[in-house]
Amino acid sequence: MSFAEIRGLSKSFGNNVVLDRLNLDINKGGVIAIIGPSGTGKSTLLRCLNLLETPEEGVFTIEGESYDLTDKSGKRKVELRQKTEMVFQQFNLFRQKNALENVMEGLVVVKDYDKKTAAQIAELHLEKVGMLGWKNHYPQHLSGGQQQRVAIARALAMEPKLLLMDEPTSALDPELVGEVLKTIRQTAQEGNTILLVTHEMNFVKQVATHVVFLENGKIVEQGTPRDIFERPASQRLKEFLVQIDMFNNLEYLI
Fold this sequence. Notes:
The chain has 9 helices and 10 strands. It has helices at residues 42-49, 74-83, 99-109, 115-128, 144-157, 174-189, 201-207, 225-230, 235-253; strands at residues 4-13, 16-26, 31-35, 57-62, 65-68, 84-87, 162-166, 194-197, 210-215, 218-223. Helices cover 41% and strands 24% of the residues.
C-alpha cells in the first residue's frame, strides 16, 4: 500500500464535472507535481483533500487511515486537516498578527501548545525558511515572497503528513518566485511529502519525483519528470508541452 491513496474522487460544480473518479497513489517523501491546463481541476483536487470542498464521492487513505471525503462531520474534518496542511496562492496570513504569531496560531489553537512552546517551534520553522529576522513584521510590511515563506513555515510547524501547495508562486512578481521555489526545494529535501500544483515547469523537472498531467478531471498521463517531459505518450500531453514552451519563449522575448 502507498503512503497515501486517493480513490474515486469526483467533484462537480453544477453540470461541470471538475474531477471524474480520480485515483492517485502518493509515495512517502515524494514530490508529486500536478500539471495541466487552467480550469482542469488541479486546485479543486487539493481543496477536496483538505475538505475545503466537499466532493460527491471519494476516499482518501493516509498511513492506513481512510477518510470518506463526503463526510462533513467536524471531528473527521479536524483529523484530516491536521494531516494535510495547505499552502495557498494568496498566502492567507492573518493581517493583524505578525509573522511569529501567524506561525504560532495553529500550534496554540489546534494543537493546544502553550504560547512559550509554540513560539519556540514557530521560531525554528521561521529560521528554516529564512524569515526569523522578520518575525515581528506584519504581513503588510513583507513582500509577497516573504509572506509565502511565512505561510510555508506555518504549514510545516503543524507537522503535516502531507503538504498541499496550490500554485504557491502564482501571485508573486517574477523576481520573488525564486526565493519561494528555493524554500520548497529545501522542504522537499528534508523528506516532506508534497502534493504541488504549479505552472513552474523547470522547477517540476528539477524537484518532482512524480508528475501527473490532469485534464477535464481525469489523469491523462503520469510518470517521472523524464517520462513526462522527454517521452510523453499521449498526443494531448505533447500539445500541452508545446504550448508551454511557446509561452515561455514569448515571455523571454518580451
